[in-house]
Design goal:
- The structure is a single chain.
- It is built from six helices and two strands, in the order ββαααααα.
- The chain is globular.
- By secondary structure, it is mostly helical.
């Protein structure tokens, strides 16, 4: 599990503020890298050429994808959330893909910060906070009607309200947990298989052929699967965030 260890960098291990450690860690470093890459990606596609180049087409593709996602799930009111959902989707996608790059071959060890629940949970709470702010701003106390489905019998309202409220409050936890578990499990599996390859090869040629070669081939397949999971998890996070925003906008 060493690959998930958060470590201070650049001699900041003893930095503290108000008794709290504020070291600049490897997790923070790769969050900055992901944010910079996202900024470069968007900036490179803002040329607005009449005949767009490949970079501009790629940015327009992703923005159009998120725009269609929000229109399908929220309606026309969802257009104003495109910048946030686009940034959320691309930030998670870049973070997930960076963690799969074999940069260790050149001495750089990328840190998959989406494998920590503190990060995915913070992104989930941020999205959930937007839902609460929008919901109460648009509907006031009528927002609580979200927890009482239309047509609920009067005697059942107290029970249904509690169940729906608990289900609603669990959303940020489940949203952050899903991404965290998917990324952690994939990286642990790859590390275990890598250990099989190295240890079986060191044990002798026979073990290398019987254990190492199948493990290596399995690693290749799982690496491809992990790239797919990285994309799917970013999409699922953005999709669920848009569905929660829909509840705040339309009280479905």
């Amino acid at each position: 599990m060493h690959q998930f260890t958060i470590e201070p960098m650049f001699g900041t291990g003893h930095w503290a503020l108000g008794g709290y450690n504020i070291a600049f860690t490897n997790s923070a470093l790769w969050m900055v890298v992901s944010a910079v890459l996202l900024w470069v990606f968007v900036a490179g596609g803002m040329k607005r050429q009449l005949i767009p180049g490949r970079w501009q087409m790629m940015v327009e593709f992703f923005t159009g994808f998120i725009d269609n996602l929000l229109i399908a799930n929220v309606g026309d009111a969802g257009k104003k959330y495109v910048p946030y959902i686009f940034s959320l989707f691309m930030f998670i996608l870049i973070a997930n893909l960076i963690g799969l790059l074999p940069l260790g071959l050149v001495g750089v060890h990328p840190f998959t910060f989406t494998s920590h629940f503190t990060i995915t949970g913070a992104l989930a709470i941020l999205s959930f906070s937007i839902v609460l702010i929008v919901g109460f701003f648009r509907h006031g106390l009528h927002f609580f009607s979200l927890f009482v489905p239309h047509g609920t019998p009067l005697p059942m309202i107290p029970f249904i309200f509690v169940i729906e409220l608990v289900s609603f409050m669990v959303r940020p936890f489940s949203l952050g947990l899903r991404l965290f578990v998917a990324m952690t499990a994939g990286h642990v599996l790859l590390k275990v298989l890598a250990g099989f390859v190295i240890n079986s090869t060191n044990a002798g040629a026979g073990f290398g052929v019987l254990v190492g070669v199948p493990s290596f081939l399995l690693m290749v397949g799982i690496s491809a699967l992990e790239m797919l999971v990285a994309v799917i998890q970013a999409y699922v996070f953005a999709l669920l965030a848009s569905l929660y925003i829909n509840d705040a906008e339309n009280l479905h």
